[in-house]
Write a structure and sequence with these properties.
2 copies of one chain form a homodimer.
Chain A lengths: L7 H11 L16 H19 L3 H6 L3 E3 L2 E3 L2 H13 L17 H14 L1 H20 L2 H12 L3 E6 L15 E4 L5 E11 L8 E9 L10 E7 L1 E3 L5 E4 L2 E6 L10 E6 L12 E5 L6 H37 L22 H33 L3 H37 L10 H8 L9 H12 L2 H24 L1 H26 L3 H4 L3 H28 L13 H20 L2 H10 L4 H4 L6
Parallel strand pairs in A: 3-6
Antiparallel strand pairs in A: 1-2, 4-5, 5-11, 5-12, 6-7, 7-12, 8-9, 10-11
């Protein structure tokens, strides 16, 4: 059992000492569960990750999938691992029992999936894509579509994709041109090319269920004319039997810097290679109503965006644990006070600069994991809170947090991986150690499922203003509630609360000031900086929450450094306190310069002209 | 001729409109030269880079060197390019004519070499290592050693390495154990293992001249007992003829994430595989006096450290130009004001967030290049200033700037490469575009030739305190002189000067406060943050210097945005102004939080205990 994927002690803290996940079992949906079943699922996920996913992580990188006679060939360990995973039933961890799921709380399944992503993010991507696809169809598909496509996905027989981008339309979905022509039987025929389709072709499953955005001729231009279709690789009969090959053709694989084990494809729909019934076009089935494709896809996108943040977190977390293990065993140099070259060298964890790099990683990855699980908890609230008002509030808060939970870990857990390499020194730059691959793999996360800049426009341009700013108000109130609790707690928590309270005021003031301009171009000119500053405040909030949980667990509100003596729990809590301190001392103050710049309505990027570069 | 390596317009500005390089030709050493010969050398370097280095940059990455029957095999383009390079005589660009050099100013040769590093950093590494080696021997070797080893290096027949690290001793040179046993004939025999030796074995040259740190038995422990030896791969007779194979054995190649075309080796000395005269040990020749190895190696190290900064800058620069070219031709989305999906998409350079990413890159890479060339200019001053006091001052200032010039570009031009990927979106994450390789290649730079943390200790622990703080005072006075000039210039320069002046005060105050503790462990606890903050101030200084040069060139001290109209020069100057603004508005304010933290004598990393992680 690998101990360098995620920390079980940290998960225990987050799930049981902070988020009180077992309390969810009081609700009917989760009544069959208990802390014991949660732990069993975590055990299972950790074991599968360590025994079946981690061992081929490097091989999946060095021997990436290739196209061979029109078919995708890859190392056999991927399918072997995914078959084991399918056997666990974990894909349906949070789904209804009625479709073969386990009905676990999301907060628990998110923690469990973290092990798989930490162990091998590119093999884990196949079930993750499938999960997002299945959840969308569960929410928006017909009963027949669920029976035909979702059940086999839950069983692990079918895998899923999402097909949005086209070569000329990535961030700009308004510009997709794939068209779907209605047929007499109610189905459609699709024609077009889709780019960047992860898991778009392989032989890991019996079938691949593509969810494809396309235009029905005659619809409105732009995003308002996009519809969503199920396009299976292999047609499925009414009895569930596999039929003829649909006209979905692999044009080629993209060759990436990382995440190499996940096929990333260029697909042609309706090219004419396969004609199951002699007629042209890829057979597709409309999901829901026409022209609702974007809204439907966002159901999946929001989930996928939090999933991206979770994946980034998992990669950051395992890199942190690996660099910590390295720092504890690598002897190099001596403390400053002792220059005597005849005394033995010390492990590098003894050097303050190495401790700085480890503390930074710890504060990033544990902060990010707290945020990811907090979102999982909100999903559970949204689904099961007894009071509908609580559900609505959870939904709104989750909406606010989605761009942050996508982007913050993608930026800072990548930074953690950079520090993990640095802790390893020259060794970290070699392919003999895992951390360089984690860094390469993690670099995808600020790009896919909406780039960093897209998330920034989403947060400041849409989420912060929707419903007259109701979402932003709710976020700030929720953070302020933590600040109030910490004030009362006294001690160090109260100190940090003052700092966080001031940061909350800055978010409110800056947002007001930006939108008071009445000029969207000016307000949004530095949206990325806004996203980053707000993200840091949100993660500071996650750290204050954790500090309060530590106070509660130790009965000590005094905030002083706990004695780290022999007791493992005491050391764990002391580490949490120190990481919280680190974040408030080293990280949160960085936001001041960002808020200042935003408050100044800076025009530098707006005024820059193309010809001046 | 590639236009995406470095900008010739920028070089013209830096060399001729700012640093006034042609003025150096008034000095005897450079009297043979003129602006025309400078331009010829830049033309030559750019052509060789574009035609012989750039074309195999990707191939050198995908087909890295392998060991085959004990010999290193690599793609033939590397040797072909290096043969062309040797034919240009550029290796000796700044060397004395007496040893076959061109006696060009360093500021010019540094600019010329930038093209090679931008085109193909891993092929360029071979001559760069050779250059550092040759310069060390020119400074510290005997006349016979220069004749035997340096001349063939200048001719491109021999290549050089530096062999410092051992598996158990990387950052901690006090712990090297390779031993050198004196022989009756005055030579030594070496026994030991050296790790991370770049260019340590290959068949690109007739011979490889290793410069090796080793201990002569009986010497003092630690760094005081280290001596420097020449250990050629093949022995060289008094007549210069190649003789028997010396006992230097390739144990293996390291497999890196980037910089893959440069062999990086584990070498055994005196393993007993080759015994030229039947006796054990690798034949080595002492350079200078015994036990002076560390000081001698630092002659090379200082040059190498500035070279690392130059290489990082070149990679950042070419990535910037490539992402700019991409942003100008990739259509995606529409301006905020125009959501009509029926109008054509705009090139992404039109989006403010993309302009932000390009401006950030521009400010990093042009700021870094200014710093690198400023250091080149200081080298020329150190060597040729008529007044010895000026030489001493240049030496001291260069000493101060060395850790910054090594680290700042390694951090921020890597950040530039990250942004270059982001500008490319998903395409930037594929190996079809250059930027992902630049990012991987550049990641080495914060590690080798002394890690980021080592540079930080050097700056704050040694350079800032040496000679009673004389070096730091000189640096701050020199920056202050620019501030004073800018004050008088009025307009925007005066505004930025106020900001820079305040930052200079903070450096002075923070340094005083840290050392007033009298506690080196406390003073140095956050040395990396000090390095980063001082680095940002130094680069802000470089930007104010450039702004003043723009003012001088345009006759306008008014600092307002110049009209970017049709005139290429006007657009160039407007771009410099905007990049300077960007740096002062977006970057320099980041240092406040860092200086605040340092002033607070923060103990977070010191107090953290190993068992709390």
């Amino acid at each position: 059992m690998s101990s360098t994927l995620l920390s079980r002690r940290d998960l225990r803290f987050l799930l049981y000492e902070w988020l009180d996940a077992p309390r969810l079992t009081e609700r009917p949906r989760y009544a069959e569960h208990s802390r014991e079943t949660f732990d069993d699922v975590l055990d299972l996920a950790e074991r599968v990750a360590a025994e079946h996913f981690a061992p081929h992580n490097r091989a999946a990188d060095t021997s990436e999938p290739v196209v061979d006679g029109g078919r995708v060939r890859m190392i056999p360990q991927v399918k072997a691992a995914l078959d084991v995973f399918a056997g666990t039933g974990l894909l349906g961890a949070s789904m209804d029992e009625s479709v073969g799921g386990m009905q676990l709380p999301h907060v628990v399944s998110a923690a469990a999936f973290g092990f798989l992503q930490a162990a091998n993010v590119s093999t884990a991507a196949y079930p993750f894509l499938t999960l997002g696809n299945a959840n969308l169809l569960l929410a928006r598909g017909s009963a027949a579509q669920v029976d035909t496509f979702v059940r086999p996905m839950v069983e692990g027989r079918f895998f899923g994709t999402m097909c949005l981008s086209e070569p000329q339309a990535g961030s700009s979905l308004a510009d997709i041109t794939t068209r779907a022509e209605p047929q007499d039987d109610g189905s459609h025929r699709l024609f077009g090319t889709k780019m960047w389709i992860s898991g778009g072709d392989h032989e890991l499953a019996e079938n691949i269920v593509h969810l494809v955005l396309a235009r029905i001729p005659g619809g409105p231009p732009g995003v308002k004319g996009i519809s969503l279709f199920i396009v299976p690789k292999v047609l499925v009969g009414p009895d569930g039997a596999l039929g003829a090959r649909n006209d979905v053709v692999l044009v080629g694989l993209n060759h990436k810097m990382g995440y190499r084990g996940t096929t990333n494809t260029l697909l042609n729909f309706g090219e004419g290679v396969h004609r199951p019934d002699g007629r042209p076009g890829a057979v597709g089935y409309l999901v829901g109503e026409p022209h609702q494709g974007l809204a439907q896809m966002f159901h999946m996108m929001n989930e996928a965006r939090i999933g991206v943040g979770a994946g980034a977190t998992a990669l950051g977390y395992t890199g942190y644990l690996k660099s910590l293990a390295y720092a504890r065993q690598r002897p190099q140099g001596r403390p400053l006070a002792d220059k005597d070259p005849t005394v033995p060298q010390v492990p590098i964890v003894a050097h303050p600069d190495v401790r700085r790099m480890l503390l930074a990683q710890k504060s990033y990855v544990e902060g990010a994991l707290a945020l990811v699980l907090y979102c999982g908890r909100l999903l559970d609230e949204e689904k099961t809170a007894p009071d509908p008002a609580d559900r609505a509030r959870a939904h709104l808060l989750l909406d606010m947090l989605t761009p942050i939970t996508k982007s913050w870990p993608s930026q800072w857990c990548l930074a953690a991986n950079d520090l993990a390499i640095q802790v390893h020194g020259g060794y970290g730059y070699t392919r003999d150690y895992d951390v360089e691959q984690h860094w390469r793999d993690n670099r995808l996360n600020p790009i896919h499922e909406g780039t960093h800049g897209i998330q920034a426009l989403d947060l400041l341009g849409r989420k912060a203003t929707m419903d007259g700013g109701a979402g932003l108000s709710l976020l700030l109130e929720t953070i302020s509630a933590t600040v109030s609790r910490a004030w009362k707690a006294d001690g160090e928590a109260a100190e940090l609360a003052a700092q966080l309270g001031a940061a909350v005021d800055r978010i409110a003031g800056t947002t007001r000031r930006l939108w008071a301009t009445g000029d969207p171009a000016l307000a949004l000119a530095n949206a990325s900086l806004y996203l980053e500053a707000v993200g840091h405040v949100v993660v500071a909030w996650m750290w204050l929450e954790q500090l309060l949980a530590v106070d509660a667990a130790t009965g000590a509100a005094a905030g002083g450094a706990a004695d780290g003596g022999g007791d493992a729990d005491a050391a764990f809590y002391a580490g949490k306190r120190q990481a919280a301190r680190y974040f408030f001392r080293f990280e949160l103050p960085r936001t001041t310069a960002r808020f200042d710049l935003l408050d100044g309505l800076d025009r530098t990027t707006l005024d820059m002209r193309d010809e001046w570069f």
